[in-house]
Design goal:
The protein contains 11 helices and no strands. It has helices at 2-27, 33-45, 47-60, 65-68, 87-99, 105-110, 116-127, 146-160, 178-189, 199-203, 209-220. α2 packs across α7. It binds heme C (2 copies).
Length: 223
């Protein structure tokens, strides 16, 4: 109706406004995992924009380094590595922390502050870091259990891959710190509020506490 009354010039202005707003809405209100992935795929496809994105990511991730490590290898046993994590998983978790579906004191406050550009650049930076064996913390004394290997090879490989590196939709878990893995598995197992609505809840419902320890000990040492 408004367009009819305004005539052509009104329509033209509406059209121009849409054009102007398009980049804005992509970087603020309409942040979805899909929109981030589309933009990320575009930017990381060209070597030049990928390089710029990586540098921007390194800059914007500074605030994360004290916990997740400068190269994405976490500084504490209870904190996950972000190195080599797939971008879709990172986008999904930012979204879950921001919406309250996943809860953690620090991350729930941090995630909503990250703009679309921050998320894309940070994902480019961390996904290109390598996971390294841990050198500090109590987790280095955990011995990988063979029963954990059997559990992995019968129950986990189908989704997380035989090497635990996941894929575009499933997170990498290989080489995560034992403490993080164990406490995360317990949260899924007990269907804690911290990580509700995850497909993992039903996957490991019937495992015992010893099973969770065993499989965590194995996954932590996967390269
Ligand atoms: C003060 C420490 C701290 C800082 C700073 C911090 N994080 Fe975290 N982060 C954590 C902890 C602890 C967890 C694990 C929460 C849990 O147990 O579920 C986590 C989890 C995450 C996860 C989920 C990873 C997974 O494997 O499930 C992502 C993604 C993440 N952080 C990104 C970031 C980014 C990006 C920054 C910087 C902008 C950042 N974090 C800064 C402590 C921190
Ligand atoms: C049906 C597919 C499927 C199977 C089987 C499966 N997982 Fe998962 N797993 C997922 C998905 C999907 C996620 C992401 C969950 C989310 O976002 O809440 C996940 C998340 C995880 C996480 C959290 C990773 C992180 O960084 O936050 C751990 C740890 C994990 N799985 C371990 C395992 C183990 C160990 C097994 C075998 C006992 C297993 N998974 C079997 C699909 C699966």
């Amino acid at each position: 109706m408004w367009v009819l009354r305004q005539g052509w010039s009104g329509m033209k202005n509406t059209f121009l406004l849409c054009l102007l707003l398009a980049p804005l809405s992509a970087s603020s209100d309409e942040v979805t995992v899909e929109s981030l992935m589309t933009r990320y795929t575009e930017l990381s496809a060209e070597p030049e924009t990928a390089q710029a994105l990586y540098q921007q990511g390194q800059e914007r991730a500074r605030f994360c380094f004290s916990c997740h490590g400068e190269d994405g290898n976490s500084t504490r046993d209870y904190i996950p590595n972000l190195a080599s994590q797939n971008p879709v998983y990172l986008f999904t978790q930012f979204e879950k922390f921001a919406s309250g579906e996943r809860k953690n004191y620090v991350m729930s406050r941090l995630a909503p502050e990250l703009t679309a550009d921050d998320r894309i650049a940070i994902a480019e930076y961390f996904s290109h870091q390598d996971v390294k064996p841990r050198t500090e913390g109590e987790d280095i004394s955990v011995v990988p259990q063979q029963s954990g290997r059997q559990l992995y090879e019968s129950m986990c490989f189908a989704c997380h891959g035989t090497d635990g590196h996941g894929n575009e939709q499933i997170p990498r878990i290989a080489g995560q710190p034992y403490t993080f893995l164990h406490s995360t598995l317990l949260s899924f197992h007990n269907n804690e509020e911290k990580r509700r609505n995850s497909p993992m809840v039903s996957v490991i419902r019937n495992l015992t506490e010893e099973d969770l320890e065993a499989v965590a000990s194995w996954v932590a040492r996967m390269p």
